[in-house]
Write a structure and sequence with these properties.
The complex is a heterotrimer of chains A (617), B (101) and C (169). Chain A is mostly helical and 617 residues long. Chain A has a domain at 590-617. Chain A is 72% helix and 3% strand. Chain A has helices at 8-23, 29-49, 81-104, 111-130, 134-152, 159-190, 195-201, 207-225, 233-236, 242-251, 256-263, 265-268, 272-293, 299-319, 323-350, 363-366, 368-382, 388-402, 406-434, 448-451, 454-463, 478-483, 493-518, 527-534, 539-586, 593-616, and strands at 58-68, 71-79. A two-stranded antiparallel sheet of chain A has the order 1-2. The termini of chain A are far apart. Chain B is an all-alpha fold. Chain B has a single domain, classed as Helix Hairpins (Orthogonal Bundle). Chain B is built from three helices and one strand. The N and C termini of chain B lie far apart (55 Å). Chain C has 169 residues and is mostly helical. Among the domains of chain C are: 1-76, Up-down Bundle (Four Helix Bundle (Hemerythrin (Met), subunit A)), CATH 1.20.120; 125-157. In chain C, helix 1 runs antiparallel to helix 2 (26-46) and helix 2 (26-46) runs antiparallel to helix 3. Strand 1 (3-4) of chain B pairs antiparallel with strand 1 (118-119) of chain C, so a sheet runs across the interface.
Amino acid sequence: MMGELLFLIPMLPLCGALIIMFAGGRMSRKLLAAVASFSVIASALTILWLWPLAAPQTRVSLFDWFEAGALRVPVEILFSPLSAAMALMVTGVSALIHLYAASYLHNDPDVRRFFALFNLFVFAMLIIVLADNLLLLFLGWEGVGFCSYALIGYWYRNPGFAAAGRKAFLVTRAADVLFVIALLWLFRLTGSLSIATINQQATSLPAGTLTIVALLLLAGACGKSAQLPFSSWLPDAMAGPTPVSALIHAATMVTAGVYLLCRLFPLISLSPTALAVIGLVGTATAFYGASCALVQRDIKRLLAYSTISQVGYMFLAVGAGTVTGAMFHLITHAFFKALLFMVAGAVIHLAAGEQDLFRLGQLQKRAPLLFWLLLAGALALAGMPLTAGVFSKDAILVACFALNSPWWTGLGVVGLITAFLTALYALRLVYLLAADRDVTIGHGPVPRGMIWPLLPLGLLALVGGQLNLPEVWGGGTALQRWLQTPSGGVGTHAVEWGLAIVTLLLFVAAWLGVRYRFRAVPMPPGGGVAAFFTDGWKIDALVRNAVSKPYEATGRLLDGFPERWYTAVLPDWLGRLCQSAGRYFRTFTSGYVTHYLSGMAWGTFLLLAILLIGLLR
Amino acid sequence: MIVPLGHVLLFAGLLFVAGLAAVLLRRNLIMILIGVEIMLNAVGLVLVGASAYWRHPSGQLFALLLMAVAAAEISIALALVVYLKRSRGTIDVNRFDGMKG
Amino acid sequence: MATLLFYILAAIVLMAVLLCLTRNNPVHAVLYLVHALFGLALLYFLLGAPMLAAWQVILYAGAIMVLFLFVIMLIDPDLFEKKASRGRFRWLPVGFLSGALLACGGVLIMMDPLAAGGIVRYRLSPRAFGRALFDEYGLAVEILSLILLFAAVGAFHLGRRHKGKEDAS
């Protein structure tokens, strides 16, 4: 009986969205924000209330969405430790961001659309998290894609912003095609789309097929999570309002890919090749994102590249076989990245819309509390020992080294280098924002409503590591015991200590380096190399040259001969044929009644003659 | 026996064909209508003959219905004749070719 | 006796029809047609349909033919058909067609075993006629009444003088 109440979790945000859509016209701005925030908070409270149901796991089916042949798609919720933890993180962070957004958009004229889409997004995200059926999950998957598109282009009157939304939509759609192929294939192989069934039957599938399906799923996940081949949409997605960036493009939606791989881990783990590729993609993306973040001038793009990089770590974790590590990093990352984005939003507000890091500064003087919050987030990102980020990141690297193979050791080393780069750009961000220089002065102080939702996140960024404190540190690995998911190889304590010391050394080195470089008032980077990294390794240009230009050339080619032939010449001939035939047949209709009547009479004669011949034979 | 059914049918056929020939040959609209009337009556004769042959009233009833329909048809047709005469000044069917393609 | 009567009447009707259809003056044609219809009424009577024969005389030979005469009188008599100007042998294809139709129909009739069966004396009394009509064909009567109504409305509409539209086209 309690089980049915689980549907409240996604339905509350949906109701919020519907109320705002249909009845929001007469609501005041405050009421809109209240409805939107309350629906998400209520959803979070529902999760806490029903938390005991997750302990073994609860599966509730509401009704059959549709049924066709062997395909049966129930609207079914699986409330397991994994999905419960993810759902709690999603609703918790969303609730804080909703409260933040209420202040952030306090004078936007179109706030009703914003909150409707925001609530709708939370609904779709919760469907992804809670669905047990892959098709239902796909519904949420596309739902978040749509909301992301609509919210990136929220200020659609700016053509650049609208184009960014379209780009995000198209790039993720390209990856979704591969995901759909994987879905269909899995249905063909197992006769079911239920994740539980697929995971059960995965062992009986041939190894080669399994690898291909796992790689297709990886491609789908890469699209949503902005991993390497599909990463270029995320930096552009920063065109949306900052709460959108915080919620969708940092904390929740971009981690959906990781979450999908975690849910399907029993299937994926059967293919070592797929795991190796996942690890490679993750590491490469992590390094790529960090190297690009190092030279960004736009504060939000910097955070976007940082997000790409951090999600890469999560992929590495899945590849190394530690689902717990991936989820741990996912959760801590949600805390500190949402925090950083919202601080960035406040900073931008403070500087009247200025996003260039080299024109911002004096944060410590102008808004001390904001500065400390920024410091908390940045340190967690940079990997200062004892903050949340360092434990989750170390857990992933430990899992890599524990596998004892040259491949994974190599990836782990790259991961360490990336950690160093991460510390560099995170501290650079702090130094640039604190730099003492002339800055644009904006609308005055940051509203209180934008500050206090950050406080719990700041706290969590610092102490969130307690969630899954390794035994070496005397912790209880609470998350691991709750999730009961695979946690990869177990490293010796020596490895863990060694890694802790190495990360500490890297952090200190990065700090000293940044301190040396940015203590004086810094100048913006210049030169071709910097431009290469700023543009994200010119990946957009690469796509343009490799995909768009050949496509356009093919189009032009087809426009020449076949297009003209099939749409102009051939139809022209056909038309002329019909015309002349019509002109000929026209002479049959003389307009005289007598002619028509004699036609009828001849017809009668014909019928009679046929009848007669038939009888005579 | 009065007469074989075949003779009634043949006679009706003769009337029908005579009416048809008039319809096809004549150019005066009124004569065409008269031809149509004769064709209709030929059919009526068949119905009555069949009614007698099967010793069943349905044939005669159908002949009555036929008469009523013919009356309706002819009233419209004659109204058309008057209308055409008024608007076109002629009732020669060879002068009407408004449906020419 | 009845057999002889049938053939005599048939000959009269056929003659009247042929005369009617070859007249140049529509008034004459209508008068011959009245003869033919009257003959047909007698044939109906002979074939056991006294009620129908009465209707044939009243409705056809009476009402409809009078309508024809009215219309003929309404329109200009000098528009009566002149000799066909074009095609002396215009009747040739029609003649062939008529002959062929008759031949086909005749052979078909003669081949049918039913046609050899004779019609014996049969009489449907007006009472039985009326009973059958309103019992079995009540709905048809209703529909027919509607058709007649439409015909009346249509004829009325066509007969109205359309001011200004008289010379249209």
